[in-house]
Description:
The protein is of the alpha/beta class. Helix content is about 35%, strand content about 25%. The model has no long low-confidence stretch (mean pLDDT about 95).
Amino acid sequence: xxxxxxxxxxxxxxxxxxxxxxxxxxxxxxxxxxxxxxxxxxxxxxxxxxxxxxxxxxxxxxxxxxxxxxxxxxxxxxxxxxxxxxxxxxxxxxxxxxxxxxxxxxxxxxxxxxxxxxxxxxxxxxxxxxxxxxxxxxxxxxxxxxxxxxxxxxxxx
Length: 157
């Protein structure tokens, strides 16, 4: 099942790399960005996390937290954050329940082999808890900037 624009965002609560927890209940009434990525410390995932981190002050200025989610555990996230000086929240979903709820667990193909994996995807959730914008099969260059522009428009509108 795939979450589409206009759908209510799935409820979630996940542990974060800083020892805390983050979830839809604690974010209720606020817009937020949740993005799903395949693996800590791989080239595309690092570029994406660094891009969002570089824009964190601008997201903070409009009151929109950014949460990155993968199946990596909190220890892996903590190493990833420290190595690349990441500023955004990283949440661990080792069982993939939230990843699946958002429809980011998909069949992929590489060198003719099919396997299940995380589709790089991002969701902008409005303060009403509904998905305002969904990006699927994300290409990293320019993506964080596009999400920031959509978030600014959503907050202003």
